[in-house]
Amino acid sequence: MEVIVKVLVTLLVVAAGAAAATYDSINRDVINKKVDRKLDISSQLLKITNKITLENGGSGAVRSFLLAFTRQEKENLSYLNAQSGGTVLKFGEARVQEHRDIEFYKVELKDALQPGKTVNVEVEIIMTQLLEPYPATIQQGEKQLVRYAGNHYVLSPYTTTTQTTTVTLPSPNIESYSRLKPTTHTDTSITYGPYDGVAGFSEDPMNIHFENNSPFLAVTKLERVIEVSHWGNIAVEETIDVLHIGAKLKGPFSRYDYQREHNSYSSIKSFKTIMPASAKDVYYRDEIGNISTSHMRVQDDAVELDLRPRFPLFGGWKTHYKIGYNVPSYEYLYSSGDHYILKMRILDHVFDDFAVDELVVKIILPEGVRNIVLETPYPVERLPDTLHFTYLDTVGRPVVSVTKRNLVESHIQDFTLHYQFPSILMLQEPLLVVIAFFILFITVIIYVRLDLTLSKDDATEAKMRVSSYCEQVHTHHDKRARLYEKLEEELQKLKSSKDVAQSQTATKKIQATIRDETQAIADIGAKIRADSAEYAEKVLELQKLDKILRDSVLQQLTNVEKLVAGKMSKQQYMDADAPLHKKKEEALEKIKSILGNI
Amino acid sequence: MSAPVLNYRTRGWLRMSVEKQDTLLKMAVLSLAAILSFSCRLFSVLRFESVIHEFDPYFNYRTTKFLAEEGFYNFHNWFDDRAWYPLGRIIGGTIYPGLMVTSAAIYHILNLVNITIDVRNVCVFLAPLFSSLTTLVTYHLAKELKGPGAGLVAAVMIAIVPGYISRSVAGSYDNEGIAIFCMLLTYYMWIKAVKTGTLFWSTMASLAYFYMVSSWGGYVFLINIIPLHVLTLMITGRFSHRVYVAYSTLYVIGTILSMQISFVGFQPVSTSEHMGAFGVFGLCQIHAFVDYVRSRLNKIQFEVLFRAVISTVAVTGILVLVVLTAMGKIAPWTGRFYSLLDPSYAKNNIPIIASVSEHQPTAWSSFYFDLQMLTFMFPVGLYFCFTKLTDENIFIILYGVLSIYFAGVMVRLMLVLAPVMCILSGIAVSSMLSTYMKQIDDVKTEKKKAKFEGNYFMRSEIATFFVCVMSVFLVMYTLHCTWVTSEAYSSPSIVLSARGHDGSRIIFDDFREAYYWLRHNTPEDAKVMSWWDYGYQITAMANRTILVDNNTWNNTHISRVGQAMASTEDKAYEIMRELDVDYVLVIFGGLTGYSSDDINKFLWMVRIGGSTEKGGHIKEHDYYTPAGEFRVDKEGSPTLLNCLMYKMCYYRFGQVYTEGG
Question: Which residue range or ranges hold the AglB-like core domain (chain B) (predicted)?
Answer without folding.
Answer: 519-586
